[in-house]
Amino acid sequence: MTYLTTKTRPVNVMDQLLDSMFYDTPSVKSNWKNFSVDIIEDGDQYLVNAELPGFSESDVDVTLNDNLMVISASKKEEAKSEEDSSASSGSGEAVRKYLLRERVQGQYKRSFTLPKDADREAINATLKDGVLELSIGKKPEAKPFSIKIN
Q: Taking every pair of C-alpha atoms in the chain, what is the biggest distance, in angstroms?
């Protein structure tokens, strides 16, 4: 296999329970969302470009376990300070009434199986202009050779 494959997970109660144990999700209910990803094979490397607009480097986590690469991002709503809420509502309680809400918030995750020739030691990641760019080097291929029979 010379390309990265998306690791799809069936949605059932057991997977949700395992996710809650291993990925620190707050409840059994799965609340992960997806994001767009491009995967390119470019000569001696694989390139992964993931769209994560509005996320900073501290919001994004890339983990590698055996040949499973997991990209996750989490962004929570910024809490209003007590002074702001008491001045705006007078009751000391923060109340927001959204008329339209489209900005990124929540938890996002994608999993990918790395091909056998991916070099785990040669992975670089950068986040610029809302795009996470991962470059994954390839291991040198084993070349076939002849064995001389005596």
A: 94
